[in-house]
Amino acid sequence: MSEALLKLENISYRYPDGTAALDNCTLSIRRGKRTVVLGANGAGKTTMFLHLNGILRPSAGQLYWEETPLDYSRRGMRDLRSRVGLVFQNPDSQLFSASVREDVSFGPMNLGLEERIVRDRVADALRAVKMTECADKPVHNLSYGQKKRVCIAGVLAMQPDLVVLDEPMAGLDAAMQKELAAVLDHLHTIGITVIIATHDLDFAYGWADEAIVLRNGRLLAHGNAAEVLLQPDVQTELGASPLVADIATSLTLTGMDVRVNGYLPRSKSELLKAISELHRQENNL
Q1: Could you tell me if 281 and 213 lie in one domain?
Q2: What is the pTM of this model?
Q3: Quick check: 203 and 268 in contact, CB under 8 A?
Q4: Three-state SS at 283
Q5: Phi and psi (nearest 5°) for 194?
Q6: 3-state secondary structure of 140
Q7: Around Cβ 67, how many Cβ atoms within 10 Å?
């Protein structure tokens, strides 16, 4: 089993107005896993994310980084935020420099790194999100999708172990969503643990290794994404089920077995490939 990077143990949080945003949550973010967090608006997703890099401190309970309790001193938070990068839902709340290069440079420069190291980190980060050609562009001239990628680059320049993204697909058209999904896959490929909040159940079902489902600040379910997202109580809470799973199950019930190695397809491409393979086999009989 993958080791826990971050562990939340009996975490509760109340906002100053008395709203209970998290209520006795216990869960682990495992190294190397692609994790999705789902739940209705107000379920506690953003509040949980703000705890993961110390922006919020729990009213009760304890967070651990690699089994060590979080250190909320200035030095401890600086170290944590160099290892846990948070990308907000609205990129305009995270971008503030004049140019793309300046914005991505901000974090590593604040670490006191040599100019050569900062320059190399910025180049690598922009390359990872395919924004190299925009390095000297003014931030305000970028599209919404490009701004999101610059935010991710700014986090990557810190060389974190964990990248946390709050609803990264929100506001993006289909083409931009596809581009961003490719970026997320690249992060996973190079060994970065990725956790995102999303309302897109089909994307979550096809992309994630693990799923966390929150309801009214409490943990409803946590485990293998392909299993969690097919649980009746989870589907009731989210108001939907993965479309690919519904289609694959219906086809199987009609005698068209689209399972691959005993498992239902988890994405549209996997489902279409399975149907094409069945068609090929039938034609070869």
Answers
A1: no
A2: 0.91
A3: no
A4: helix
A5: -125, 130
A6: helix
A7: 9
On whether both 101 and 203 belong to a single domain, the answer is yes
Q: Split the chain (285 residues) into runs of 10 and give each run's mean pLDDT.
A: 85 92 95 96 94 95 95 93 91 87 91 91 92 92 91 92 92 87 90 94 94 96 95 95 92 85 85 87 75
Same domain as 254, residue 225? no
Structural domain including 281 reads 242-285
How many domains is the chain built from? 2
Residues 250 and 221 in one domain: no
What pLDDT does residue 160 have?
A: 93
Q: In terms of domains, do 10 and 96 share one?
A: yes
Residues 91 and 222 in one domain: yes
Identify the CATH number of the domain in which residue 201 sits.
Answer: 3.40.50.300
169-173 own/partner pairs: CB under 8 Å, 24+ apart: 169/198, 169/200, 169/203, 170/89, 170/199, 171/144, 172/144, 172/145, 172/148, 173/145
Q: Which own/partner contact pairs does 89-97 have at CB distance under 8 Å and 24+ positions apart?
A: 89/46, 89/166, 89/167, 89/168, 89/170, 91/144, 91/147, 91/148, 91/150, 91/151, 92/147, 94/151, 94/154, 95/139, 95/147, 95/150, 95/151, 95/154, 97/139
